[in-house]
# Entry
Amino acid sequence: MRIHHCFAALLLGLPLAGSFAVAADDAPLAPEVQRRVAVVVLARRIRAYAAMAKASSDCQVEQGRLSRRQANQALAISLEEVGISRGVLVNPLVVALSPRLQRLLDDSCALDRTQEAEALQLAENEL
# Structure
């Protein structure tokens, strides 16, 4: 299963600006707070990537290009190749978001450029 550019868009496109807000007196956040915020942001991006990968995988099955077994194996391998545990696929947020992202995919199971903004907004709102 090839990875489409939409995964990178979801992974990198989730906004960070609101996450790294500064205190009222414009003092930078404490290092431990910055680390915690970075962990939360990374977790959101991992879930977004997994949800989009699952959506694409499920689309491949629906289009008859892969069997469910092949799709599951390819999905697990593609996640593990980028250091993501397949356990993220049972995360309730990933489970809920994936079918919604799948509806945005075209017949080739790719995210059309016109749908990228909608997918990013959906991921931001749901994760």
